[in-house]
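Worked Example 4.2. Read the sequence first, then its structure tokens.
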Amino acid sequence: MTGNKTVDKHTNSAQERSTSPQQFQHEATAAAALTHEHPSGVCEILLNRPKKLNAFNTEMCEIMIEKLLAWEKLESSKVIFVKGNGNKAFRAGGDIKALLDLEEAGRHHEAAHIFYRHCQLQHLIGSLKKPYIALMGGITMGAAVRLAMNAPFRIATENSVYSMPENIIGHFNDATQRLQGPDIFYSGIATHYVPAKRINALEATLDDLAVQKENTLDKDDINAVIEKFSAEDIDKEEKAPAFSLGGGIYEAVNRYVTRTKPKWHPPTLEQVDASEMKRKYFDAPIDTPLVPLIDQGGTYMEYLHTRFMLPKCSEILHVANTFGGDRERTVKHLIDKYTGKHGVKAKVDSLF
């Protein structure tokens, strides 16, 4: 204790080791994304448009593609850490104005190419063999989610705000509800929940781990480091933040989705015009197939990093049913399976 303030054991001199924007190595600190390669092998990307809440643009996309491809091949790179400049946002979507300007000028192919490169970047992030960590600090909305969701490690803080607002403008059929930090974690969008005041110390510990290792960091070792700094209070009943989809809400939604008889049009699959369906929903306006920047094989039918996340609601309910609704046995089973992960107990409790 110092005076009346509690000293967090995770926030010490490590705060002084956080990389400032001036330390990043890209050719100009005004660049949309700055990069820094630490001697330890930790490679950082700083999304650098704080006045626009780090909104994604073409320059940012191209810098990220260039550096991720280089680091994937570089033997000395051991882990990649991506975060936003400033306290307000990781990234607040894409730069819509740039797209509108191209469309209004009739430059449709250039606008389509922006989406093409964005899709290539998303596939690249999901295909990297080098571990990739996304710090979803502050606003993480729309196109910002693309830089995080394919990553094995996605860290939310109490300041994180997640949403996919595209549905409002008819662009993408997804949830528009805003989720705050704990819900982002409980729902599986984030793999970890770390208090913002511990992030600098977490980065410093990752740097120390990289110094000790000669090669690419093992994902389980990275997970152990992040867990060390995760909010342990989340599993204490008196301090655990509520899960907005917990209690009877999840089951009620699930019952509605599974028991409500849909009204299909046309009413049978035999009446569906496959060629019209393809034309309307799948044919691109330009005939340019997406070419991956790297191809590591695999079908992407299953997410490979579920062990770093909290168990799904469906898994919790399945285990609970197996144990006859016994909460303590359910908690113990899942804590053992997820190797003591912070948040497992809180999520299980929220569903009972």
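Now turn to a second chain, presented in exactly the same format:
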Amino acid sequence: MIDHAQFTLYVNIVQLRLILSRQEVMNGLTRLVRARPICAVARHLATSATTLKTIKEPEYLDEGGPQPGTYGLVNICAKGMDYTVLEHYAKWVHNTAIAMDIEVTESWATPAKKMNVQVFKSQSNKVLHQHHLNVYQRNVQVIGMTSVETPVFLRVITAGLPEGVELCVQDHLPEHFEDRYIPDLQLKELRKQLDALGGPSTTAKRGR
């Protein structure tokens, strides 16, 4: 058994070791503070903590991804026999394109085409009814529509299509530009007569 004197000596030895350990820790901190200022130590600790929390992201996330394709000149053609309805629908298509940030280059009207509709009597050549109809056309030309905007835009203008109006979307061609002008029938007749006579003369006239 350990007597009281030995127990007291053992406790004193343990306390002395604890005191020496605390003294060594304090001496180490003192040397660290003397070697580097307190602000530098705090900055070093903060930087180390920030570095541990930082997540490295791949570089390709900051790069621009693939861009959607765009269309060139596209003509939106609306045909109908009711002039008033067709005119209002063409204006609505124009305003809808502008509201969707789609560039509208121009809008124009194509000369009306005349149709003659005849209804014959059953099993006969006798005409019962005859109607003269005018087919009007309005065109809205857009450019730069992306492959993302195009299906949405077409779905919107198709949903608002009035009854009796035919919608057509097509690429712009040179003949579409010529169709907007009213043909000169007299000039065409003169050209036909000139072709019947053998065409224009290629012989230059000599001056007297």
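Notes for the reader: The first helix runs from residue 4 to 35. Residues 26 and 52 are 28 Å apart (CA to CA).
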